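Researcher: Let's continue the batch. This sequence belongs to Dolichyl-diphosphooligosaccharide--protein glycosyltransferase subunit MAGT1, and it's 301 residues. Same format as the previous ones, please.
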Amino acid sequence: MVLSEKVNQLMEWASKRSVIRMNGDKFRRLVKAPPRNYSVIVMFTALQPHRQCVVCKQADEEYQILANSWRYSSAFTNKIFFAMVDFDEGSDVFQMLNMNSAPTFINFPAKGKPKRGDTYELQVRGFAAEQLARWVADRTDVHIRVIRPPNYAGPLMLGLLLAVIGGLVYLRGSNLDFLYNKTGWAFAALCFVLAMTSGQMWNHIRGPPYAHKNPHTGQVSYIHGSSQAQFVAETHIVLLFNGGVTLGMVLLHEAATSDMDVGKRKIMCIAGIGLVVLFFSWLLSVFRSKYHGYPYSFLMS
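Model: Same format as before. Here are the structure tokens for Dolichyl-diphosphooligosaccharide--protein glycosyltransferase subunit MAGT1:
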């Protein structure tokens, strides 16, 4: 195909669908074969239900948002196209590129072959559309303003929270002592601190996958092996471990300061020590698995 025919074909497909689905033949003709004066961002994925790739579906949603943001922007040109190769529709492409994992994002530049930086670091940067847009801008000089469809979950939750607070104030208007309850405020503050220290904000910014399933062995990893990244499941595990240590410290404090009989205080003390020792050991083992070469351990290696 001559260059003008390739561009016209891609523009026609892009006008119908922001992400162009490709099989082996289309990939070889329009992406691999010269001539080409346009870049193609390709997501290699496995979306069929029997593949059970949850991460692929999550990444596809973000990829569609990015492609739609570009397709319907005023800056849309034929300098860059977004495409997708599903394993069940183009397994020969996976074999051609020696690819054995999905999802994977690769930029095929207008000139030359893809370089190391043209493969997106999914495990490090996550698959949020904003992160993908920054990578696309870095590799192609095409800046895409990500426009997400409206999400009313946040305002609805805020409205529900305000309604609950307003209802409590209305029902207990004559007695607002509960607003001065130190235990309640301490519990709320503790929940917030545990959520932040477990990495929830990092998840919100980077949009990492919940976990990773090895396509060869089928083994699911909930802890990322690098100190530069994490999974959503990992933050939940760390939150649980931090909560266990905190509960142990609270029990130790209560055992030392309460007016209960000695027997109950001893039980609380033993339970508190057990929780702190057990969950701190697990936390340290997670730390060791991410920071390779860390020399210290406690109970568990």
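Researcher: Any comment?
Model: The radius of gyration is 26 Å.
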